[in-house]
Write a structure and sequence with these properties.
The complex is a heterodimer of chains A (305) and B (335). Chain A has 14 helices and no strands. Chain A is mostly helical and 305 residues long. The relative contact order of chain A is 0.15. Chain B is mainly α. Classes of the chains: A mainly alpha (305), B mainly alpha (335).
Chain lengths: 305, 335
């Protein structure tokens, strides 16, 4: 966006001032969406819980209290003090596991989105910038990946690579990156025709500079929105893989894996099943609320209405 | 229109080839010797091993192997399952109706609830109905459906005892497989209680599977309606004194349905992914559960061909959606 300031804006503002104005404008629109603000608050809480998990959790997430198997939550008859949400089938404190599980979900989300975003953006930039047969070839490959239902392809990829958290993240990132590639390509193609790009090209900017410094910063809005949505899907899909026994390995306190272990107790101990799922739902909902707010604040079409 | 269809079909060829390359490649890069894998734990003698390798063509270059794989596909040979030794295609076709039945019921639920809710929310924009329904839609959209299914089982099957936990129909009933759809077959069989049993088995999985499409359709309908209601032709219709009901029903709704129909079509991929989880939770004997079982038992021919068949299915449905879209909206065809 620095390029705009150099060529188009008549009143000269420093880059920092422009950035401050943009952030202020963004915050003004974002704030109007109460759901988005609530989502942001929950998300910040989640991040804090993940960071301070060792301090917050009353017990170790893997410590097994063998004399306290399937203890119900504290408010129910039979509940024990110190085990607020009860214990699971091998006597581990559920609250502590949920708190440490937040680390997994955020970590998975960050890794998947970073890999998919960086990979997809570079691929999309190349396709949109060079066009022709390169574009055709790349977009066909993306179409092929999109032809598979994402969870199924991720599942098969994990089966091939071997079950485990790292492979699950790689698989999900591979499945997600075509979305970023498509968005970047579309944005690049419309930006490329603008005058500021021609101006930069005429003044001697090389291809790499044009791609990354001139065009890319102006394509970020849809990518940011897509990144938020992918973050929530990544949390959901990795939990689903964990649930199917293809994600994080036990005894990791990953929420989906916890649900998989809890399945056989659905008739006897509701709390083992209920809380991990609730944690997934709340996190995903918070991120989606934020995503809605981001879209409204970043989409110029909706701003005017 | 013919030209439009032909272009679309031509575009499918590279996609189809790509899908076969991925399905072939994924299983070929697996670590381990496929012949040893087939032989199982007992193992084979070196002579027999060489014989089998040659027979199955694993000694040929990879490219040749791919082309013979492709050749067999066109003859309808998708390989045999390692665990049952039956042709994969037969297994797929036997289980497929169960998934279709579940998927159709789910999409039916999603449409008959999602579209009216979306329309009402748009008409009463900002009302409590709008806020509650759109909040619920966002919750549905964020739902981990495997957990949602477990909750429904706990409540309806465990606590209330209303519905069975797994399968498509009670073991008490047996009747011939006519259409493959349990709801229809149970009616045809004329056995008392059979239809009720089929419905009770179907209802929870269908609700679970419909959750995400329902949320997506409701949100999409609402935003499409809002967009259309701001158009000039809607304002004109209102200005000339047309009743509000007619303006919404005829002018707005018809045009708003175009993107909604696309959305419904695009839910097929979501449904297939959802079927994997839903069928696993409810032990529903469809292709989703079949794939999960094949992956966990390392039945690679099933994984390979299942992946291929599902991808082809999604591709064909997407083509049909594209064609319908071209039919409804002539502007697309010209492009």
């Amino acid at each position: 966006m620095s390029d705009i300031s150099e060529t188009n804006v008549p009143v000269k503002l420093s880059d920092a001032a422009i950035r401050r104005r943009m952030i202020a404008e963004f915050w003004f629109y974002f704030r109007q969406n109460r759901g988005a603000v609530a989502g942001l608050v929950v998300f910040i809480l989640l991040v804090l819980i993940a960071i301070f998990a060792p301090l917050l959790a009353p017990h170790s997430p893997t410590a097994q209290y063998r004399d306290l198997l399937l203890v119900p939550p504290i408010w129910q008859e039979g509940g024990r003090e110190g085990y607020i949400l009860g214990t699971d089938a091998v006597g581990r404190d559920i609250l502590s596991r949920l708190i440490f599980g937040a680390q997994y979900s955020l970590f998975i989300g960050i890794v998947v989105v970073s890999v998919a975003l960086i990979g997809g953006t570079i691929i999309g930039l190349i396709a949109g910038f060079f066009g022709g047969w390169i574009d055709n070839f790349i977009m066909r490959v993306m179409d092929i990946i999109l032809a598979f239902p994402s969870l199924l392809l991720a599942l098969v990829l994990v089966a091939v690579l071997g079950p485990g958290l790292t492979n699950a993240m790689i698989a999900i990132a591979i499945v997600y990156q075509p979305h970023f590639a498509r968005l970047t390509r579309a944005a690049v193609m419309s930006e490329q025709k603008r005058e500021y790009v021609t101006a930069a090209r005429v003044s001697g900017a090389g291809n790499l500079r044009l791609m990354f410094r001139t065009i890319l910063p102006n394509c970020l809005a849809p990518l940011i929105v897509q990144a938020t949505l992918s973050f929530s899907s990544a949390v959901l899909d990795s939990a689903a893989l964990g649930f199917l026994g293809m994600g994080a390995r036990p005894p990791a306190p990953e929420w989906g894996t916890m649900l998989a272990e809890a399945r056989e107790f659905i008739s006897s101990a509701w709390w083992v099943v209920t809380f991990p799922g609730l944690a997934i739902l709340i996190s995903v909902l918070a991120i989606n609320l934020m995503g809605d707010g981001l879209r409204d604040a970043l989409d110029p079409k909706l701003k005017r209405s | 229109m013919v030209r439009f269809i032909l272009t679309k079909l031509l575009y499918l060829i590279p996609t189809f080839l790509g899908i076969t390359i991925i399905a072939f490649g994924l299983v070929r890069i697996l670590p381990g010797d496929p012949v040893l894998l087939m032989a199982g734990e007992r193992g084979v003698s070196p002579e027999r091993h060489a014989q089998l390798t040659a027979m199955l063509g694993y000694d040929k270059p990879l490219v040749m192997q791919y082309f013979s794989f492709l050749g067999r596909l066109f003859q309808g040979d998708f390989g045999n399952s390692l665990s049952t030794n039956k042709p994969v295609l037969n297994e797929f076709l036997t289980l497929f109706p169960a998934t279709v039945e579940l998927g159709l019921c789910a999409i039916f639920l999603a449409v008959i609830i999602g579209v009216p809710v979306g329309v009402l929310a748009a008409i009463k924009r900002g009302s409590w109905f709008d806020q509650i329904s759109m909040t619920s839609a966002l919750v549905g959209f964020s739902m981990p459906i495997f957990w949602w299914g477990l909750l429904l089982i706990i409540f309806f099957s465990g606590y209330l005892g209303w519905t069975p936990v797994s399968g498509r129909i009670s073991y008490m009933f047996y009747f011939p497989n006519v259409t493959g759809f349990m709801l229809i077959d149970s009616l045809l069989s004329d056995q008392e209680g059979a239809f009720k049993s089929a419905v009770l088995h179907l209802i929870l999985p269908a609700i679970v599977l419909s959750t995400i499409p329902l949320a997506v359709i409701a949100r999409q309908t609402r935003s499409a309606m809002l967009e259309v209601m701001g158009e000039d032709y809607v304002r004109t219709a209102r200005a000339k004194g047309m009743p509000r009901r007619r303006v919404i029903g005829v002018h707005a709704l018809r045009n708003a349905m175009i993107p909604v129909i696309t959305t419904i079509g695009l839910q097929i991929g979501v449904l297939m992914a959802g079927a994997i989880l839903t069928e696993t939770i409810f032990s529903w004997p469809g292709i989703g559960k079949w794939m999960v079982d094949a992956i966990s038992s390392r039945d690679y021919p099933v994984v390979q061909s299942g992946l291929l068949l599902i991808a082809i299915l999604v591709m064909v449905v997407n083509l049909l959606v594209d064609l319908t879209y071209g039919l409804i909206n002539p502007r697309i065809r010209v492009k």
